[in-house]
Amino acid sequence: MEPFVLANEHVRLAMPTAADVDRITELCQGQDVADWTTVPSPYSRADAASFIEEIVPEAWRTGRGNTWAIRRPQDPEGPVLGMIGLTSDQAPTTDASAEIGYWLAPEARGEGLMSEAARLAVDWAFDPEGLGLSRIVWTAYTGNWASRRVAWRLGFRVEGTVRGHGIQRGRRRDAWIGTLLADDPREPVEPWPSAEAGERVGSGVHPGASPHG
Ligand SMILES: CC(C)(COP(=O)(O)OP(=O)(O)OC[C@H]1O[C@@H](n2cnc3c(N)ncnc32)[C@H](O)[C@@H]1OP(=O)(O)O)[C@@H](O)C(=O)NCCC(=O)NCCS
């Protein structure tokens, strides 16, 4: 598939390019991204270069996945603010499924930007004229409430905690798993587990550091 831009008045998603290598290097060296994702750690400029020159275009070309850099629509040439991607599970079936993944620069958090980006990507992925998926899966290491909040807003149903489901740099970690089906409402479908999550959500106070799961 040819890479393309998805945009609305809040967010602009476009395939990252060679001009983004330094910025992606900087952001992927952030502690939260290292703690909660599977990017290499320590993260080098060569990691960002191979991500942009090989991994992302190859995934677009083969249909294995779709990755976009996140920017504001008013600043389409500005620094990357984050990344969002869908990775196909490549199951031999016509009702296709993909996993969603994302990260955001610390300075771009707390504004709902990722929720906007994820909504754009998800709407396109379910659209029969887009990927026509039947299902999208979200997983996060347990304790990643910020990520869970994004998934919750989009209507993902968190169906469980699976011990050792996540593999991060060769080590197993417990993970939450949630799914969203094509016909599900794209809005919260279950109460937010505020007691478990603590008082931070919705308080307007956005923690600088996430817990280490
Ligand atoms: C996940 C991520 C993209 C979310 O971006 P964001 O929505 O702008 O992030 P925020 O920091 O504003 O947090 C989102 C919500 O979770 C809440 N939250 C954040 N950390 C929390 C914590 N430790 N406990 C409880 N709630 C928390 C915030 O209060 C916020 O709620 P609100 O919007 O209703 O006020 C961003 O935190 C990130 O890039 N994290 C590092 C990488 C990562 O974890 N990627 C996902 C891997 S599965």
Order of helices and strands: EEHHHEEEHEHEEH
Query: Count of helices?
Result: 6
Quickly give the structural class. alpha+beta
Which oligomeric form is depicted? single chain
Q: Mean pLDDT, nearest integer?
A: 93
- CATH superfamily heading: Gcn5-related N-acetyltransferase (GNAT)
Total strands: the figure is: 8
| Bound small-molecule species | coenzyme A
Summarize the structure.
With 213 residues, this protein is of the alpha+beta class.
What do these coordinates show?
There is one protein chain. The protein is α+β, with helices and mostly antiparallel strands and 213 residues long. It has one domain: Gcn5-related N-acetyltransferase (GNAT) (Aminopeptidase). It contains 6 helices and 8 strands. An 8-stranded mixed sheet has the order 1-2-3-4-5-6-8-7. The relative contact order is 0.14. The site of coenzyme A has 27 residues, from α2, β5, α4 and α5. Coenzyme A (COA) binds next to α2, β5, α4 and α5. This is GNAT family N-acetyltransferase. One of its GO terms (molecular function) is protein-N-terminal-alanine acetyltransferase activity.
